[in-house]
Amino acid sequence: MYKNLIFSVENNIAILTINRPEVRNAISLGTVEEINAVLDSIEKDQSIRVLIVTGSGDRAFVSGGDLKEFEQLVTIEDGRRMSFLIKNTLNRLENLEIPVIAAINGVAYGGGSEVALACDYRIAADSAKLGLLQVKLAIMTSWGGGPRLARLIGRSKALALLTTGDILKAEQALEMGIVDQVVEPAELLDAAKDLAGRMAANSPLAVRYAKLLLNDQREMSFQGALNYESELFSVVWASEDHTEAVNALKEKRKPNFKGR
C-alpha cells in the first residue's frame, strides 16, 4: 500500500517503519503524506492499542529531511509551508490516543531526532546516535523538536544541543533523559514489543486516559491537573473495563478488556 513505509498490526500492536534505506530513511513530503494516511487508519481502528515507530535496516532511524527534495524549497513561504506540514503531522503522532514508542535503530539526525521526540517513549540501540544538526546547515528545528527537547531536558541543555549540533551516542542521550532505554541492536524491536505488549495488556480506556492526562496537564496549573485527573478517573471507575478487571481478579482469570 505504501511506497515509503511498511505498516503492520499484530496482537493489537502496530509497527510503522520508515522504509527509504537508499536515503537512510530521510523524510520526504511523500513520506509525510503516507504517515498521515497511517495515522488516519490508526485513529479509526480501536483494536490498535500501541504504536511502534522505527526505521528500516540498521543504519538509520530517520536521517533527517530529504535534502535533495527540500533544496527545491527556497522562499520563506516554502519553508513555512514545509515546516507546518511536518510539524502538524508530528503533532498528530504525539497526540494519538494510544502510546507511541520510538525504536531508534540507527542515526536520528536533525528531523530524525524531531520524529523521535514526538513519540512518548524512546528505546535506542546502543549503536544509535542522535543530534539536532540543523544549525550545521544554518537552519534550526522546525518540526517541534526545539520546544519538545526543552520540555524534556530543560532550556540550558536544549540550547547547548541546538546551537552546537553535537552528536550524542545512545548512552549519552540516556544520561540526558532524551532516550529512556538503551539495548543491544538485536534486542531493539523485541524490547519495544515487550513494552508495547505490557501496555496493550491493560484496559485500552485506562491507558488512553493516562496518556491524555499527561499530555493535557502540561497546559494546566498543578491544581487544575489534579482536578482533571479526578474527572478522568471518574470515567474509568464507572467503565465496563473496571468492572471486568475486578471480576477477573475475583475469579482468578485474565480480564477481557473492551475499551469501554
From TrEMBL:
MF GO annotations: lyase activity
Lineage: Bacteria, Bacillati, Bacillota, Clostridia, Neomoorellales
Alphabetical keyword list: Lyase
Pfam families per UniProt: ECH_1 (PF00378)
Species this chain originates from: Metallumcola ferriviriculae
Family: Belongs to the enoyl-CoA hydratase/isomerase family.
Protein name: Enoyl-CoA hydratase-related protein
GO BP terms, alphabetized: fatty acid beta-oxidation
